[in-house]
Write a structure and sequence with these properties.
With about 325 residues, this protein is α/β, with parallel strands linked by helices. The chain folds into two domains: about 5-95 and about 285-300, NAD(P)-binding Rossmann-like Domain (Rossmann fold), CATH 3.40.50.720; about 100-275, NAD(P)-binding Rossmann-like Domain (Rossmann fold, 3-Layer(aba) Sandwich). About 35% of the residues lie in helices and about 15% in strands. Strands 8-7-6-9-10-11-12 form a seven-stranded parallel sheet. The chain has a five-stranded parallel sheet with strand order 2-1-3-4-5, with helices on both faces. Helix 11 (about 265-270) links the parallel strand 11 and strand 12. Helix 1 runs parallel beside helix 12, helix 5 crosses helix 7 and helix 8 runs parallel beside helix 9. The longest helix has 19 residues, at about 285-300. The two termini are about 30 Å apart. About 40% of the residues are buried.
């Protein structure tokens, strides 16, 4: 009999197909009432697969009495309750990889898309409006200032790409980086006033929740743009909607949202907003690599072999 596993969230479709060949897979996201689904269908689940944004809470552990193995389809385990895993004796794995480059590629693409109004232009042409009138102009990218909020691996990769577009780069974070020459700000408001586009790359922590609020958006100004490829809750979504609607800022490009996959209707109806469904790491190369690592650890665990990518609790 195949071991039973619970898949918390939809992941790469070929990975799901591979899982279904070797395991009995319960798909939590398809259930209209997830709690009832777990009680009724998941009493024999021995393994669970989650994602970094979805996480796995103490409550999730408590709902699965026979759980032995938890795998994270991604490298980041901040939202996994590792203390609860240790208490329950559940082993945990992840799929370590570098996401900095593809996320930075997307961020730079979003900078260009929102400043040059590429998505608006696409809609304009598809609607047959071009023969009747001239499309409104966008803003040049080169020569502008790109302010990066957080300067870890992703921030550094974005800085390289922005520099190649002849943008001036500055960054804000808790401390100055001694090995870079870009201008450093210890105050986000000050950097926002000097920036044409703010790119959010910092992690979500209690200190960064709603870090980009109405005050910061006001400092960015009517000609400024916001790009968020980090976590939705770092930006005060209601303040952002108000700033976009009033013209307080020029536009925004968002790959992440406060309540994914639900996007506020106001954002979906704004022409000056570029929206993406959290695709920063959604490349075939990354997904295929994660799939191989995930399956390797599941096979190892259920055949009694050593884990390849264990996470210390």
């Amino acid at each position: 009999m195949k071991p039973e596993i619970l898949l918390m969230k939809a992941i790469y479709a070929p990975t799901i197909a591979d899982l279904e060949r070797e395991f009995t897979v319960h798909k939590l996201w398809t259930a209209p009432e997830p709690d009832a689904f777990i009680r009724q269908a998941c009493g024999n689940v021995r393994g669970a697969v989650t994602t970094p944004p979805t996480g796995f809470s103490r409550r999730n552990f408590e709902a699965l009495p026979k759980l032995e193995f938890l795998a994270c389809f991604g490298p980041h385990c901040e939202l996994l309750d590792l203390a609860a895993a240790k208490e329950r004796g559940v082993v945990v794995t992840n799929t370590p990889d570098s996401t900095a480059e593809p996320v930075a590629d997307l961020a730079m693409g979003m900078v260009v898309a929102v400043m040059r109004r590429l998505c608006e232009a696409d809609r304009f042409v598809r609607a047959g409006k071009w023969p009747a009138r001239v499309f409104a102009s966008g803003s040049e990218v080169h020569g502008k200032t790109c302010g990066i909020v957080g300067f870890g691996r992703i921030g550094r990769e974005i800085a390289k790409r922005a520099s190649s577009f002849d943008m001036s780069v500055c960054y804000c974070g808790p401390r100055r980086k001694d090995d870079v020459a870009y201008r450093y700000f210890d105050d986000l408001e000050s950097m926002a006033r000097q920036s044409d586009v703010l790119v959010v790359t910092c992690p979500l922590t209690p200190a960064t929740r709603h870090l980009v609020d109405a005050h910061i958006l006001g400092a960015l100004g009517a000609d400024g743009f916001l790009v968020n490829v980090a976590r939705g809750a770092i930006v005060d979504e209601l303040a952002l909607i108000a700033a976009l609607a009033s013209g307080q800022i020029a536009g925004a490009a968002l790959d992440v949202f406060r309540d994914e996959p639900h996007v506020p209707a106001e954002l979906m109806h704004m022409d000056n907003v570029v929206l993406a469904p959290h695709i920063g790491t959604s490349t075939r190369e990354i997904r295929e690599g994660r799939s191989e690592k995930l399956l390797a650890d599941l096979r190892a665990y259920f055949s009694g072999k050593p884990l390849i990518h264990p996470v210390a609790a």
